[in-house]
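Lab notebook, bench 4. The sequencing result for the construct came back, and we need a structural model before the next group meeting so we can plan mutations. Quick request posted to the team channel:

Model the 3D structure of this chain.
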Amino acid sequence: MQRLAYLCWCAAALQPPRYVVVYRGAHGGFRVPEFDAARAGISGATLAPADETMAFSRARRHCGGDVGPPLFMAASNATAAELAAVAARSVLVRAIMELWGSGATYGAAAEDAAARGFAPLAGTWRVCSMKVGAARGKTGGAALRSLSDRKVLGELEPVLARLDGPVDLSEAADETVLVACDYDRAVDDHAHERPDPRTVYVGRLVARGARATRLKFSLKTRPFVGTTTMDPETAALMARLARLEPGMAAVDPFAGTCGCLLAATHLTGAAATAADVDGDALRGALANFDAAGLPRPTILECPVDALVGRLGGAAFDAIVTDPPYGKRERIAGGDARWLEELLGLADDALKVGGRCVFFVPHGDDASADDVAARVAARAPGYAVEASAQQRLSGPCLLYTSPSPRDKRQSRMPSSA
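Done. Here's the predicted structure in token form:
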């Protein structure tokens, strides 16, 4: 009987590995678009809910009230090395794990893993836990912690007993056995904090996301910041959605202190051009590039409506910007002059197939879909690829890609 069980376990271990992407509880509407952008040129991986009982279209209420797809997504059609490369390019991915088993409790997840089987680990290993979800009161930054709870470790015995090699409780361990707990809840679930997780996932940690980018460019450590400098996480997200790569070029017509371009230059190696009417802000921002050891952007002190003439016919792969906000700048009721100027710049300076990533000021009663529709109406010929409500900033972030036809045919009509 023991020999039969061992053979069954070996046969299960030969099955293709399963992978789960664990997300941070922020920018919910952009989890899948950012993953698609991060995997471009690396992998053909696709995402689906890790919990098959949760429909992909059903929103989940995440950390801090953010709403979006599930925080645990199953990745397929990819290798561990490909997914590790994707994680290194992603801001929203918290971790990627090779899934051994899952269940409603620690014990159930361990028994599922033992029944399915998994490849043995090479070298030293440690056990860490990660608790994710709004029901735990987390803010999206739950750390990877060494698991020392004797009761939990006892429930995980069906898995731990199968691991060879010495245990190393330090970060120097060759492998990490990850126990990820989903404490999330659906939008319509108003239950108080649960003592137990919804689902427990057990497996091998493949990679962690690009959290170091947020830490390296913290506003607290920059030599120069302004009152409206874009936070490093959102700026990095915008750069990734723009699908910039080394050798490409990006422009920010409302650059200010160049928060968007700082992240774009660091993450993608793209050449940057910064334009703004505030020359002091542009010149001050150069210190941030110097401090990070990054090439300085080309700076142009001019309004956006004069930018095309200053560019000398240069074409860009992306426009990444945080436009100026004001009472008359809301597209729901104001003139939205900046939007006309921005999309006019896209007509003249954005390459066909390029992307424009920007925030849109709007009224509190406007949904992300409403804003996307209004922008699309003003820019026929451009396709809104993704949009989402940003909980803290209020504006809606969109990114658009021009159609292959002549962009000048898509210039939007002048607003009355």
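The first helix runs from residue 2 to 13.
Will bring this to the meeting.
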